[in-house]
Write a structure and sequence with these properties.
2 domains, about 40% helix, alpha/beta, 7-stranded mixed beta sheet
């Protein structure tokens, strides 16, 4: 079986469409489609159901994907190690974290890293869904919880603190609450359905349930919550790192213990000798020491 076709097959299966796969590997859709057609001809069976909205693996495609996943990972690891054998760190390095932390804290600090290591092709994969570094969905993860997998190396970076925030205009109209019962007369804005590791993000919604307070608005994006509060819609619990010096928001002194979330840098045990990961790890640890939120 042709290795390049198998590699493309896994990329397409993970991407869910030719167009998304094309964007990921910077190759034309027609070239990718041709590789998949050639692979299907080689094995003698269809591997994908074609739909207008994307691709779904056939039963035989699922079987091929599962049986060859380890092979693909082994070859990727070999490629990774070969590149890392060079004297100076170089090659691709993917880092995943949440949209909020990645956009507001991590990205502004990466200029120093890219200047010092221009040979490393750094990619940020920002999503509130957790990518599996053990399955090579990313090389490094910065997570809002301590990983449970035994095959992952981890390092605590800092603790994220949360407070209640509102705009001056909102507080002038509705007053400033100081305890949970005061919230009966307020509008609250929450995240809505969150992954398990982010369940604390809905602390405000949970503590107001006994007063039958329903959120005036739910936004499944931390930056969206910030924008809603800035535009006088209501009160929200926000991480302190999200609040900039130019923000005209008021931190509410509230008579309750609000959530604190420990943040960890993590990567696969198999990558412990990677030069790329080592230099990024040391860079983030040093930046983490400057954490003041």
């Amino acid at each position: 079986m042709d290795w390049d076709r198998l590699r493309i097959f896994h990329i397409v299966a993970d991407a869910g469409s030719f167009s998304h796969a094309s964007e990921e590997i910077n190759t034309s859709q027609s070239a990718i489609s041709r590789q998949i057609s050639n692979l299907e001809y080689e094995v003698g069976i269809p591997l994908f159901h074609r739909h207008p909205r994307g691709l779904i693996l056939t039963e035989q495609g699922e079987l091929l994907y599962k049986r060859t996943r380890n092979i693909v990972d082994i070859i990727k690891d070999a490629e990774f190690e070969l590149i890392d054998s060079k004297e100076r760190p170089s090659g691709d390095l993917s880092v995943t974290t949440t949209v909020g932390l990645g956009t507001n804290w991590l990205t502004p600090r990466l200029g120093d890293f890219t200047s010092k290591f221009p040979e490393i092709n750094l990619e940020l994969r920002l999503t509130d869904a957790e990518l599996d570094v053990g399955m090579r969905e990313a090389d490094i993860a910065i997570r809002f919880h301590k990983p449970q997998q035994l095959d992952l190396i981890q390092r605590k970076l800092f603790t994220v603190h949360f407070h209640l925030y509102a705009s001056p205009n909102y507080l002038n109209e509705y007053g400033t609450p100081s305890k949970t019962s005061d919230l009966k007369n307020h509008k609250i804005v929450t995240y809505g359905k969150a992954p398990d590791y982010l369940k604390e993000i809905n602390w405000l919604e949970n503590i107001t349930k006994e007063y039958k307070i329903k959120p005036i608005l739910k936004i499944g994006n931390i930056k969206g919550l910030h924008m809603a509060v800035s535009n006088d819609i209501g009160i929200a619990m926000l991480p302190d790192y999200l609040i900039g010096q130019d923000d005209n928001l008021v931190r509410i002194a509230f008579n309750a213990k609000l959530p604190e979330i420990d943040t960890y840098l993590t990567y696969a045990e198999e990558r412990r000798n990677s030069k790329r990961i080592a230099v990024f790890r040391e860079f983030i640890i040093e930046k983490g020491k400057e954490w003041a939120f």
